Amino acid sequence: MATAVLDTLDAQGLRMTGPRRALVEALVERQEAFTAEELMQAVPAVGRATVFRTIKLLVDSGLVCRMSQVDGRPLYSLSHQGHHHHALCQRCGAVLDIYRCGIDTMLENIELATGAKVLGHRLEVFVLCPACVAAADESPPAKQLA
Ligand SMILES: [Zn+2]
Ligand SMILES: [Zn+2]
Ligand SMILES: [Zn+2]
């Protein structure tokens, strides 16, 4: 998996130095979404500036998705390519990819209403993932005060 990502970067003509390689390996291993800070902790030998620069590079080349948490802080995850959106579970942090965008009509309406040309969009949805919904259903109801 890490090799596939590294191959793609090579094909794009990006020089994969030791630190960059270590970062890519760390984030492929993670599988789940991560913050820049978490990535730094995973690869303590790599400097802060390199971490940020490499993340930007990976986002620009479409290999990593950048999304926002509910408080606006950036979160990243390995991309599965293609236009998609993210649903972020507010309980366990799982990220669900949504490939059905379905907001084209809304964008057309925005163009009609404003006369502006829409160039792109970003959409994040905050959810309880299926596992967390199930867990919430199973957990006993909150204790009632007598
Ligand atoms: Zn994604
Ligand atoms: Zn969840
Ligand atoms: Zn979309």
Characterize the structure shown.
The protein has helices at 2-11, 18-30, 36-42, 48-60, 104-114, 130-138, and strands spanning 64-68, 74-78, 85-89, 95-98, 124-127. The mean pLDDT is 86. With 146 residues, it is an alpha+beta fold. The protein folds into 2 domains: 1-80, Arc Repressor Mutant, subunit A (Orthogonal Bundle); 82-137, Ferric-uptake regulator, C-terminal dimerisarion domain (Dna Ligase, domain 1, 2-Layer Sandwich), CATH 3.30.1490.190. The strands form 2 sheets. It has a 3-stranded mixed beta sheet, with no helix packed on it. Strands 1-2 form a two-stranded antiparallel ribbon. The chain is built from 6 helices and 5 strands. The termini are far apart. A hairpin with a 5-residue loop joins β1 (64-68) and β2.
Label this structure with key terms.
146 residues; alpha+beta; Arc Repressor Mutant, subunit A; Dna Ligase, domain 1; 2 domains; 3-stranded mixed sheet; 43% helix; 16% strand; globular
Short account of what is shown:
The protein has two domains: 1-80, Winged helix-like DNA-binding domain superfamily/Winged helix DNA-binding domain (Arc Repressor Mutant, subunit A, Orthogonal Bundle), CATH 1.10.10; 82-137, Dna Ligase, domain 1, CATH 3.30.1490.190. 43% of the residues lie in helices and 16% in strands.
